[in-house]
Fold EMB protein.
Amino acid sequence: SEEKNISLASPTKVELRCKLDENSNLKNPQVTWKRGSETISHTSKTKNSWAIQLTISDRSQLGSYTCILKGEKEISATFNLQVPNIEGREKPIITYEGDTAVMVCKTEHDPKAWTWYMTNGTEKVPITKILHADKFQIKRQSANVNRLEIFKLTKGDSGVYWCEAAFDLESSKSRFELKVLSIAAPFKPFIAIVAEVAILVTTIVLYEVCSKRKGKGGGKEFDQIEQL
């Protein structure tokens, strides 16, 4: 099985074609085209290739189209028609109070518009509604690259952010997770280690003091026995 992703930013005509290699052992296969689980018919055929022609006018026509070739064995190829993906960031952004966080979204096609959201519980709030020049800044570096900057971070800025690119067929989104730590956070492991060492040293000192006291007390008892 083979799979291919095809990015479509606007309505267009598309031809999807499956072609067998001339040296393939699969002779005279039975060919079926499917859109998802629905069987559709191919519109053109040559000796070793089968194609369908599509007019993609809205998002309902996006999705997976598969050609299945059956003979002595079965092979297939799937075409995923989708709006362009946004290149975002999979791992959380970890930073500290007072710093600046930067989030960048990039896509291969130029969207009609960009929108940034901040998640407030289960609701997405457009940042343009809460935009303050001293807190948020949105920069359009180019037609297909957009950037969000958040200044003077506090723990309250932690959360999930989204960037959305609007295309004619459908919008594409990317998710960012921001974690803002206190300035003391990097020192917590060091403080814990210092505390453990201090406890250990105190225990050793107390043990040595107690041992010396016992040793002195034992000598006095011995002297008293000698005198008796």
